[in-house]
């Protein structure tokens, strides 16, 4: 088996485990909501629990496990391990991601009818409900992250809330989305494109890694910085590969409309660098990510495998 195949198998196995874990956590979070507004609750559940790669929760869990905060699948010591903080952080990041997708799909934004192979939330329900579902999921993220039973200091929890708020807001995902809209139909240079994607996509991936690390009470700042460098590299690589797949994959494989970037005249790496140039950039970012992990005195095989997956995935 090739090295690439080994990485794919490792990530596939971990994804199955982490996906089952986060699905249970998210289902419980929705189930705890009162029956105040049944249609809104149903739309939140639909937008949050329709599957997906669960990249961001996986990064939270993998980083936390790496630094010794949790061992989600070691039954022998399960009673002595507190995974509450990791569950809350993973669920919070996924709630933010789900809200962003619901809003991105709206007619005023990307106007898409398909997400993860199924009708988008505003198609399955209606536009007003979709807007409210996104708003409510954003609020739920911070409700989860600010619970009083996470086993962390108040200072550490406040730092985590701030990390997620910055990643989701003006200086992160929302700012990047605004740039994406601003640049439609324009030819922009590589610096502007990198700034766009480091905010639109990379900020939340960076937050996932940092939140997983911050769940560790005795975290050392140099290790957090190295993990941040890793996350910044894979965050940009994730978007580069998305741009490539928008050209090379089909709608059924992607689970969303193929070729939408071209139709909407969006700025993409294949448009700027050509398809081969975009692939070379993805490989360079992979090397940067692996180099950052070399500075961490922990077994980093899981994060290494995940970096390979980001660049080599086909959906």
List segments where confidence is low: pLDDT < 50 over at least 5 consecutive residues: 73-81
How are the strands of the largest sheet arranged?
Answer: 1-2
Mean pLDDT: 90
- Taken together, the total number of domains comes to 1
Percentage of residues in strands: under 5%
Could you estimate the helical fraction of the residues in percent? 55-70%
Which H/E pattern describes the elements?
HHHHEEHHHHHHHHHHH
Write down the overall geometry: globular
The CATH first-level class comes to Mainly Alpha
Query: What do we call the CATH homologous superfamily?
Result: Farnesyl Diphosphate Synthase
Structural class: mainly alpha
CATH fold-level topology: Farnesyl Diphosphate Synthase
Q: How far apart, in Å, are the first and last alpha carbons?
A: 22 Å
The total strand number stands at 2
Number of continuous helical runs:
15
Could you describe the largest sheet, including whether it forms a barrel? 2 strands, antiparallel
Query: What CATH architecture label applies?
Result: Orthogonal Bundle
Rounded to the nearest angstrom, the radius of gyration is 19 Å
Structure overview:
By secondary structure, the protein is an all-alpha fold. Helices cover 69% and strands 1% of the residues. It has 15 helices and 2 strands. It has a two-stranded antiparallel ribbon with strand order 1-2. The longest helix is centred in the N-terminal third of the chain and has 29 residues, at 3-31. It is globular. The two termini are 22 Å apart. Residues 73-81 have low confidence and may be disordered.
């Amino acid at each position: 088996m090739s090295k690439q195949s080994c990485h794919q198998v490792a990530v596939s196995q971990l994804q199955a485990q982490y996906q089952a874990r986060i699905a249970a956590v998210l289902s419980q979070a929705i189930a705890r909501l009162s029956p105040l507004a049944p249609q809104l609750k149903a739309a939140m559940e639909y937008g949050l629990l329709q599957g997906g790669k669960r990249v961001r929760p996986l990064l939270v869990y993998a980083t936390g496990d790496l630094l010794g905060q949790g061992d989600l699948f070691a039954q022998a010591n399960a009673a002595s391990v507190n995974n509450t903080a990791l569950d809350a952080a993973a669920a919070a990041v996924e709630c933010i991601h789900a809200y962003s997708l619901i809003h991105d799909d709206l007619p005023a934004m990307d106007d898409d009818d398909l997400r993860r192979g199924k009708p988008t939330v505003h198609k399955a329900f209606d536009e007003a409900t979709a807007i409210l579902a996104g708003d409510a999921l954003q609020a739920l993220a911070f409700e989860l992250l600010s619970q009083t039973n996470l086993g962390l200091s108040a200072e550490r929890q406040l730092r985590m809330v701030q990390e997620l708020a910055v990643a989701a807001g003006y200086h992160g995902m929302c700012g990047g989305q605004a740039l994406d809209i601003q640049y439609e139909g324009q030819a922009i240079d590589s610096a502007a494109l990198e700034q766009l994607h480091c905010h639109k996509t990379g900020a939340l991936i960076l937050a996932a890694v940092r939140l997983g690390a911050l769940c560790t009470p005795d975290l050392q700042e140099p290790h957090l910085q190295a993990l941040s460098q890793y996350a910044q590299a894979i965050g940009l690589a994730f978007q580069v590969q998305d741009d490539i797949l928008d050209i090379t994959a089909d709608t059924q494989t992607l689970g969303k409309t193929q070729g939408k970037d071209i139709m909407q005249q969006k700025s993409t790496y294949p448009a700027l660098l050509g398809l081969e140039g975009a692939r070379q950039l993805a490989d360079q970012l992979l090397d940067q990510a692996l180099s950052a992990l070399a500075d961490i005195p922990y077994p980093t095989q899981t994060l290494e495998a995940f970096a390979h997956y980001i660049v080599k995935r086909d959906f």
